[in-house]
Amino acid sequence: MKRLIIIRHAESDWQQGDETDFERSLNERGMAEASVKGVVLIKKQILPDLIISSPAKRAITTAKIIADKMAFKIEQINEDQRIYEANTSDLLNVIAGIDDHHSTVLLFGHNPGVTSFCQLLSISNSFINMQPCGVCCLDLDVERWGDVHDGSGKVVFVEI
After folding, report:
1. pLDDT tens digits for 47-102?
2. Strand, helix or coil for residue 147
3. What domains can be seen in the chain, in order of their start residue?
């Protein structure tokens, strides 16, 4: 059994007209949301072995805020360019590359990819749209990350 927690980046700042999409920062509300979600994950006793994030500023900042709340070493967060603007196939490839000794993984990404990925993995295939800083926890009925496929996950909880 593997556990995957998929998190959409927190709310970003659209007011910074000179930033590219990749460089877009979190706004104050986004920073607060990320901090709250870190506490929520602690209360749910989520202890990640690995955190993987899109390197886009809003995603990696969300990952760092939540990791800090969870006492996960920020310098151990893995950034993976494939997550930025990823589709479900890209995200499956990211997951397939995870070392099998990791059992609980947090993945920080972007919509529409993260919503589609949650729908793909969940047994029921019914899932609502991931809002900024939304969290979907899935238990995957696999022993190896490379065996993750559509319908291999059971939704444990969702925090929208």
Report:
1. 999 999 999 999 999 999 999 999 999 999 999 999 999 999 999 999 999 999 99
2. helix
3. 2-159 (3.40.50.1240)
